[in-house]
Amino acid sequence: MLKDKIKENKPGILLYGITPPKINLSKDEAYQIAKKQLERLENTGIDGLVIYDLQDESARNDEKRTFEFCGTIKPEIYHKEFLKLSYPAVIYKAVGNYTKEEFANFLNTSNNDMLSVFVGASSKNDLLKFNLNEAYKLKKEQGGNVTVGGICIPERHEKKGDEDLRVASKIIKGCEFFITQAVYNIENAKRFLDDYANLGIKKVPIIFTFTPCGSPKTLEFMRWLGISVSKQFEDRLFESDDPLSASVGLSLDMFEFLYKYGRAKGVSVGANVESISTRKVEIEASINLLRGIKNIIQNEKECNLEELIQSASKFYE
């Protein structure tokens, strides 16, 4: 079970991230989307789903949003009523979208297997009903069944150099695992792992997110979300005859490095694969990426740190 793997700090946790259907769709349309999502995931061997709770995020970015924002079905409702609890799920909760009473009700009505990532404000300019620290405090006071996870952002570590300390602080507040923003910059992720591994705290799983990118429009949206994509990687993608396949191959290489590097440094690394695009080819590519990562986990070979660091050179060729 996913919850057991997290509690036991197991490496190789494999998740697939999905967004619930838009709230303005009919129930029949939402059921059809759920059916297609479950069909795609058959025989992939995932440990569970990540179901996002979307925020507009426009307040943190002066640039126009690449894709129009639209509210979605609440993730816990989508999991229970439409996906029929087919897989264990990590339910994202953008805490600022809820009042204290609404959030308390979510905690009180959660079942024993519930896992949830509490997500704070996307910007200091956001007008919040409830904030992240209050959510952690409420969970601690109420106890309950929810296993809490947090967000980790390697890009922020590059800019501020303190993402490892943020993670440590969240562990103290009750977080038992972390899911990162999508990774397209291996150096940021590696530097975070180095500093996190050196902290004298109990270690919890770090689940890196990977997402295929096959078009300039998707890349634009990734950058709008704050995902770091170096010019070098961009060139490698779009100078290729098949950018989508190139991005899948790049993500597989990055996961393999981070997974083995984490093991060598005493950190349990997993993967969350997602598609932030509605394009069928990119969704299918995300499933191919998922299967490729599963294969890497199943065929793991021991590798020492020196060999791993040397192998990282391929990301800079």
Automatic annotation (TrEMBL):
Pathway(s) annotated for this protein in UniProt: One-carbon metabolism; tetrahydrofolate interconversion
Cofactor annotation: FAD
Keywords on record: DNA-binding, FAD, Flavoprotein, Oxidoreductase
Gene3D superfamilies cross-referenced by the UniProt entry: 3.20.20.220
Domain of life: Bacteria
GO MF entry, a single one: DNA binding
UniProt record, GO biological process: methionine metabolic process; tetrahydrofolate interconversion
Family named by the database record: Belongs to the methylenetetrahydrofolate reductase family.
Protein name, as recorded: Methylenetetrahydrofolate reductase
